[in-house]
Design a protein that fits this description.
There is one protein chain. With 99 residues, the chain is mainly beta. It has one domain (9-98): Jelly Rolls (Sandwich), CATH 2.60.120. The chain has two helices and eight strands, in the order ββββββββαα. It has helices at residues 85-88, 91-98; strands spanning 9-12, 17-21, 26-32, 34-39, 45-49, 53-56, 61-66, 71-76. The radius of gyration is 18 Å and the shape is globular. 12% of the residues are buried.
Length: 99
């Protein structure tokens, strides 16, 4: 398995694949081409095209494969998650829910 760091750019030849397991959630952006992504314990597979992004989970085996053309992906720092919706509501909205 390959180790990937924040802000790495990976170049993937047509039909080549890379296998990773991330220590923390990581956002990727497809810079060019199309890539196929499959994630351990996820019933779905994902096709991403140039310009699209996706957050990859930590502690799962992830396979990323280029399609028929060369693919290039950028690893981006994962942005901070916004607070949960209940915590972001105004205080009076919470009180109205309790009444």
């Amino acid at each position: 398995m390959q180790t990937i760091a924040d802000e790495d750019t990976l170049s993937i030849a047509p039909y080549q694949l890379i296998s990773v397991r991330l220590e923390q959630e990581q956002m990727i952006r497809v810079a060019s081409g199309r890539v196929w992504i499959t994630i351990e314990s996820d019933a779905n597979d994902y096709w991403l095209a140039a310009g699209q992004t996706m957050v990859l989970p930590r502690d799962r085996h992830i396979v990323i494969e280029a399609g028929a053309e060369h693919g290039c992906i950028d690893m981006l720092p994962q942005p901070l998650k916004p607070p949960a919706a209940a915590h972001s509501m105004p205080t009076n909205a919470k009180l109205m829910q309790l009444v």
